[in-house]
Amino acid sequence: MLNKNSIELSDYQYNQKRMGLILAELNKIYPDAQTELRYQNPFQLLVSVILSAQCTDERVNKVTPALFDTFPDSETMAAATTEIIYPYIRSISYPNSKAKNLAEMAKQLVQNHQGIIPNQVSELIKLPGVGRKTAHVICSVLFGMPTLAVDTHVFRISHRLGFSAGKTPEAVEKDLMRFINPEQVHQAHHLLILHGRRICIARKPKCDDCAIALYCPKIFE
Hints:
The protein is mainly α. The protein has helices at residues 11-29, 42-51, 57-70, 74-78, 82-89, 95-113, 121-124, 132-143, 152-160, 169-179, 185-198.
């Protein structure tokens, strides 16, 4: 058990040490942690991440095979209209707005970036349907950059583990980045998401099966 008082650590040092131990344990459980979205090229990953907003990866993976068979790259999707894209994604959340975003995103990608996915958050968030979280996923997964995407799972776990009391994803991201070593940020994103999906779930977390329960303040409340 990591005890702050017994080794006279400051709050910052204690949480930094605790985060390191937590990530080490999660890495043992999920040694090959990576995105569960299925894609064959950078454009397809971008499309999948846009579709995954407020939707499960499992659902996205069910609709993208047919979508990517028809629109395998930015050029083919840029030539399509919202009405043509919509039937392929009608079973996921917010299909109307996402179909519109995909059509416009592909057009802008071809017109402004020659169909190449930008490797900067500032450029990615200019694309329709791409917010900060999506941009951070792309920069992390495609380019190995130390960007942390705070989705609902990361947000929930960060609060439960006592690393943040932030009310917004941006606030939680800022708190977490203080405690995660830069070289671990890329993997930390996937580790926390997987643990949130499988163990530290929203309604009834499986605390008895949690390998990091020893480091969780909630267990000792």
